[in-house]
Structure formats: structure tokens, C-alpha cells
């Protein structure tokens, strides 16, 4: 799954650790999502979209 999480995170001037704390996961999880090595659970995808105040489809797209 492709994603633009790094772009949203950088736009909001957040570190991976800060974003991780905001959605209650580890920094390593955010890193794996950004490197497209890990597809987030639906719950985490909703949490990220809620944090960035956008739709899930704006963050993630199928390959």
C-alpha cells in the first residue's frame, strides 16, 4: 500500500516520535509505515487520518 504519511508528518513539522506518541504507537511503527514495510491496521489508519484531519484515502492508496 502506498502512502503519503511522511509528507503529512513533515508538513506538520512533526518527528516520527511525536506522531507515534499522538496515535499511541512506537516510532518504529511509524517508520515502517512510511517506508511501506508495514500496512497499518484499520484502527491505526483511522487514528492517523483523524490526527491529520483528513480522509484515510488521502493518506493511503492501494498499489
Keywords for this entry:
63 residues; mainly alpha; 434 Repressor (Amino-terminal Domain); two-stranded antiparallel sheet; 60% helix; 6% strand
Explain how this protein is built:
By secondary structure, this protein is mainly α. The chain has a single domain (2-53), classed as Orthogonal Bundle (434 Repressor (Amino-terminal Domain)), CATH 1.10.260. The chain is built from 5 helices and 2 strands. It has a two-stranded antiparallel ribbon. Helix 2 (16-23) crosses helix 3.
What spatial order of strands do you see in the largest sheet? 1-2
Q: Which whole number gives the mean pLDDT?
A: 97
- Structural class, by secondary structure, is mainly alpha
Number of strand segments? 2
Q: Low-confidence runs (pLDDT<50, min 5 residues)?
A: none
The amount of helix comes to: 55-70%
Number of domains: 1
Strand content: 5-15%
The arrangement of helices and strands along the chain is EHHHHHE
General form: globular
Count of separate DSSP helical elements = 5
Spatial separation of the terminal alpha carbons: 5 Å
CATH class assignment: Mainly Alpha
Please tell me the CATH architecture by its name: Orthogonal Bundle
Q: Do you know the CATH topology?
A: 434 Repressor (Amino-terminal Domain)
- Rg from C-alpha positions? 10 Å
Main beta sheet strand tally, sense and closure? 2 strands, antiparallel
Protein name: XRE family transcriptional regulator
Pfam families: HTH_3
GO molecular function: DNA binding
Keywords: DNA-binding
Amino acid at each position: 500500500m502506498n502512502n503519503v504519511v511522511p509528507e503529512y508528518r513533515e508538513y506538520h513539522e512533526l518527528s516520527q516520535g511525536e506522531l507515534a506518541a499522538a496515535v499511541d504507537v512506537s516510532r518504529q511503527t511509524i517508520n515502517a509505515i512510511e517506508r511501506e514495510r508495514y500496512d497499518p491496521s484499520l484502527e491505526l489508519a483511522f487514528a492517523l487520518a483523524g490526527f491529520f484531519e483528513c480522509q484515510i484515502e488521502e493518506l493511503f492508496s492501494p498499489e
